[in-house]
Amino acid sequence: MRYREAGTSLTEVLVTTGVAGLTAILAFGIYARGSAAYRMQARSVALEQRLRAAVEVIARDLRQAGYLGSDGAPVEVDDGVLLVRSAEPRPPDPDEPGRAIDAEGHACSFQGDPTTACPALDWAEGRVRVVRLVTHRYRLTGDVLQTSSDGEAWSPLAAGVAEFRVTIEGTLVHLVVSGRDDDLERTVTSAARLRNLPP
Predict the structure, then answer these.
(1) Residue-wise over 8-34: b if at least 16 C-beta within 10 A, else e?
(2) Which segments of the chain does DSSP mark as H helices, in order?
(3) Between 199 and 174, residue with greater pLDDT
(4) Dihedral sign (CA 92, 151, 164, 197)
């Protein structure tokens, strides 16, 4: 009497191995596609946040343009550079009550009537309006959006910027900032109303 030995044949092993390999390949493909989509989404979010942060800085500056009636046009574009002029309050030094500072930073010491000693300053109801004129500048150099307060020392505001466009319509300023990160492109827009213009 002959007995058959129980076991698996070579064909069954090959079929099982092939099915397992195919399943592994499919699973890896799904994982790779999901991982690539996640990385692209993370890059997209990072790019948009970077552009949004830069636009918010500029928009906040625009909303302060013309504060206390600064001299010159409060907002203008000159040779691709956005100029935002404002005047920040600068109170007199409390340690020197007989000293006032004008908008350009020049000091005037006085005794008695300050309007007589310092006639060039802006006096209203016996009190000097002391301000410091500030001009913030924004420009696109290469793919870096830069900012400066003196026109000489420039600091990076955002990298990967492809376009920086400003449109001025009366008291409304439109900003368009587009960015690129390899194959990704994003655009952020904003509008800021100039609120502090003199009547």
Answers:
(1) eeeeeeeeeeeeeeeeeeeeeeeeeee
(2) 10-63, 114-117
(3) 174
(4) positive
